[in-house]
Design brief:
heterodimer, A: 316 residues, mainly alpha, MetI-like fold, two-stranded antiparallel sheet, 16 helices, 73% helix, B: 279 residues, 2 domains, 15 helices, globular
């Protein structure tokens, strides 16, 4: 890092402090305080993430039942899964659930952000209200929708059949294969779109007003301003939010576990719920972890690309 | 002054979209609250669907008197507060070091922390459970307090790194020229300035721990030791009576988060936008 002239006195102070020995030269001027402050995180990450992660990879290569030592089987679990119909269906469902949810969240989030930058009254109050689904406990929201979707007493069927009269009779939203996936996606969208909205809103607020004025002077319509000013400026935020949400949604356990447990007949079975069921229902831990890790290479790519973008967003 | 993308003529459109979004967001909470106040009789007969008539507290009385809900509430408070404390303390120090101090391995550790934040719990829960059990902490609140930092600490650290980076470096340098040590400058100059960020991070950590479901479901088998989300989910029975009861529990579980959030909304929105995603 180049030292600007204005900072010279400070770096002189830094050098004085670091002049203690060769260690400071090798490890950096702040190495003592630095390592002291970072040590708890390092211990924690090693113990709670890195080690379990390594152990997970090992277990996925074994046949392991609860309470019995693991037996090494190589890639058997993965090979078996590849040809397993239930697993294949869960993979497809996971992708449908993830991409369906993320696409709708992106659209609704953009609508939310645009509305909240328009000239409306009580803007910050509405912003706060729209964020509530994002902070409310996921379990509560899932249970709430379980009740809303209820076939005989739920308010959704009541609204559609008795109030609006658009349906002749109620729908078993979560119990019919045709509607179950859309119904769980709706709950994920409901919970997640405010995060998209608030992130886009922050990005839009950072766009200089002059850019819109210049575009308006040039005769750009609202749609053109959105396409040529707003979208390019939001590009990095959109990438970050979409990738973050993709990871979160792909690994969402709570909503589907509470609403359908993967049913009816596997119509909403996704990988995290399948992992849980094989691990704690069937007690086959090695196979369960293989289910969880099967998509790891793809997820790792997403995580690394995302981390790059997040760090670049900061550096600017 | 924020730029108006929609333009001047689109006022009514903006209000229409806003109203639609608000309806979709608010109605489920309204419905939850109304359901919790309905009598069993009213639930079964589908009378006065959209308001309680009469409003009764039977569900709340049953919930607090006849179930372990009170104990679960206590468990959730203990677990959420302890893990918030741990995460905030560790995360604040770490974030400062990773954002400001110059030492070998800093950039690598910053990346590792971020990647850790992105590793999903659905991959970690089985081996983490095995590890918690090996430590003799299975089926205990201590086990949860030990495990929750796996997601709260990386998040708090990442959030606060952004916050510390936004505080001008010259402030510390000035303090150090005046004879303060690095630690002194951190404690007396930087930490007070970072208070809003630390508060927001603590609130997020609390919310994450309060809402956590998967680890609590897997690690705890003793009914008395359940946390609120897991306890609530065991109330699913599917009959008329169960719903009012369940919604009363849902209301009480949501309250602390909404209360904290309302009170500290400014910091939370600021923290969310300044820290986690900054473009």
């Amino acid at each position: 890092m180049a030292t600007p002239a204005a900072r010279l006195p400070a770096s002189a102070a830094l050098q004085r402090r670091g002049a203690g020995g060769g260690l400071a030269r090798a490890l950096g001027p702040d190495y003592r305080l630095g390592y002291l402050f970072v040590a708890p995180i390092v211990v924690l990450v090693l113990a709670l993430v890195a080690y379990p992660f390594g152990y997970a990879i090992y277990l996925s290569l074994t046949r392991k039942y609860v309470g019995v030592p693991p037996v090494w089987v190589g890639f058997d679990n993965y090979v078996k899964l590849t040809w397993d119909g239930f697993f294949q269906r869960a993979v497809v469902n996971s992708f449908v659930f993830t991409f369906g949810s993320v696409a709708v969240k992106l659209a609704l989030g953009m609508a939310m952000a645009l509305v909240l930058t328009a000239r409306i009254r009580f803007r910050s109050f509405w912003t706060g209200v729209l964020l509530i689904p994002w902070v409310a406990p996921t379990v509560v929201s899932a249970l709430n929708f379980l009740w809303i979707y209820d076939y005989s007493l739920g308010v959704l069927n009541y609204l559609l059949v008795k109030v609006l009269r658009v349906l002749p009779q109620g729908v078993g939203w979560l119990s019919e294969p045709g509607t179950a996936m859309a119904s769980v996606i709706a709950v994920n969208v409901w919970r997640g779109f405010p995060f998209f909205g608030i992130s886009f809103l922050a990005g839009m607020k950072a766009i200089p007003a002059e850019m819109y004025e210049a575009a308006a002077v040039d005769g750009a319509t609202a749609l053109q301003r959105f396409r040529h000013v707003t979208l390019p400026a939001l590009q990095n935020i959109i990438i970050i939010v979409v990738l973050l949400s993709t990871i979160w949604t792909f690994n969402d356990f709570t909503i589907i576990y509470i609403l359908t447990k993967g049913g009816p007949g596997g119509a909403t079975q996704v990988l995290p719920v399948l992992t849980y069921e094989i691990a704690f229902g069937a007690q086959r831990l090695g196979e369960a972890i293989a289910v969880a890790l099967y998509m790891l290479p793809a997820m790792a790519v997403v995580i690394i690309v995302l981390a790059r973008h997040m760090r670049r967003g900061r550096a600017r | 002054m924020s730029p108006r993308v929609l333009g001047r003529a689109q006022g009514p459109v903006a209000y229409a979209i806003l109203t639609a979004l608000l309806l979709v967001v608010v109605f489920p909470f309204y419905w939850m609250f109304v359901s919790s106040l309905k009598s069993e009789e009213q639930m079964r007969t589908l009378t006065a669907m959209f308001w309680p008539s009469p409003a009764v507290l039977d569900n709340y009385r049953q919930l607090l008197g006849k179930t372990d809900f009170g104990a679960w509430y206590g468990n959730s408070i203990v677990v959420a507060l302890s893990s918030t404390f741990v995460a905030t303390a560790i995360g604040t120090l770490g974030a400062y070091a990773l954002a400001r101090l110059k030492f070998f391995g800093r950039a690598f550790m910053a990346s590792a922390t971020l990647i850790t934040y992105l590793v999903p719990p659905s991959i970690l829960f089985i081996p983490l459970y095995a590890q918690i059990r090996n430590l003799g902490l299975a089926d205990s609140l201590t086990g949860l307090v030990a495990a929750y930092p796996s997601f709260t600490v990386p998040f708090v650290t990442w959030l606060l790194m952004g916050y510390f980076e936004s505080i001008p470096e010259e402030l510390e340098e000035a303090a150090m020229i005046d004879g303060a040590t690095r630690f002194g400058a951190f404690r007396r100059i930087i930490l007070p300035l970072a208070t809003p960020g630390v508060l927001a991070a603590a609130l997020f950590a609390f919310t994450q721990a309060w809402n956590e479901f998967l680890y609590a479901l897997v690690f705890i088998t003793n009914v008395k030791l359940r946390t609120l989300p897991v306890g609530l989910s065991t109330f699913i029975t599917g009959d008329v009576y169960g719903w009012g009861f369940l919604m009363a529990g849902a209301v009480l579980t949501t309250l602390p988060v909404i209360a904290a959030y309302t009170y500290l909304q400014k910091y939370m929105v600021e923290g969310l936008t300044a820290g986690s995603v900054k473009g």
